[in-house]
Design brief:
Strand order of the largest sheet: 1-2
Strand content: 5-15%
Helix content: 40-55%
Number of helices: 6
Order of helices and strands: EEEEHHHHHH
Mean pLDDT: 84
Largest sheet: 2 strands, antiparallel
Length: about 160
């Protein structure tokens, strides 16, 4: 049994659609749910990159992820990405002042986003798709029987 990564239902692994990245395996009820899950991750990644540009850093603090959890209660990752993309210059101007710490900057940005995203409606719905080409081949493993291990007593008899 496995849990669907999108809808959190218990499903049979044999019937599930799987997505494997390295050693991590995620299972989904349908192909559509797998696509929606990947699309959501892509929007999250794009929004994350915009936020890192705004904060002028190359890695996020734990405070950012706590604020992200609050944003997810208000909107989806797609809406957050579209909001950040349209208002990136305005947010950059708002953050163009001195802060005592990175935490204060993250909280300030979070407050701005929480207040503005409630009544936000995206102007442009079209988001260019990033085409990622994955090169892979399917192969069928051929199992061959190995010779049985023999003990010393059998070898001595021969």
């Amino acid at each position: 049994m496995a849990k669907c990564a999108y809808c959190k239902k218990e499903i049979n692994q044999k019937d599930a659609v799987s997505l494997s990245v390295g050693k991590i395996h995620r299972y989904f009820c349908t192909e559509k749910e797998r696509f929606l899950y990947q699309q959501n991750l892509e929007y999250k990644d794009r929004a994350y990159r915009i936020i890192l540009k705004l904060l002028q850093t190359n890695r996020a603090s734990t405070a950012l992820w706590k604020e992200w959890a609050k944003w997810n209660k208000l909107c989806t990752n797609k809406k957050l990405f579209l909001f950040l993309r349209e208002n990136q210059e305005d947010l950059n101007r708002s953050l163009n002042k001195e802060f005592k710490s990175d935490y204060a900057m993250v909280r300030y940005l979070s407050t701005i986003i929480q207040n503005r995203i409630i009544g936000y409606e995206p102007k442009q719905v079209d988001v260019p798709q990033i085409k990622r080409e994955v090169d892979f081949e399917f192969y069928k493993p051929q199992n061959t029987a190995r010779k049985r291990r023999v003990g010393f007593d059998v070898l001595e008899r021969k």
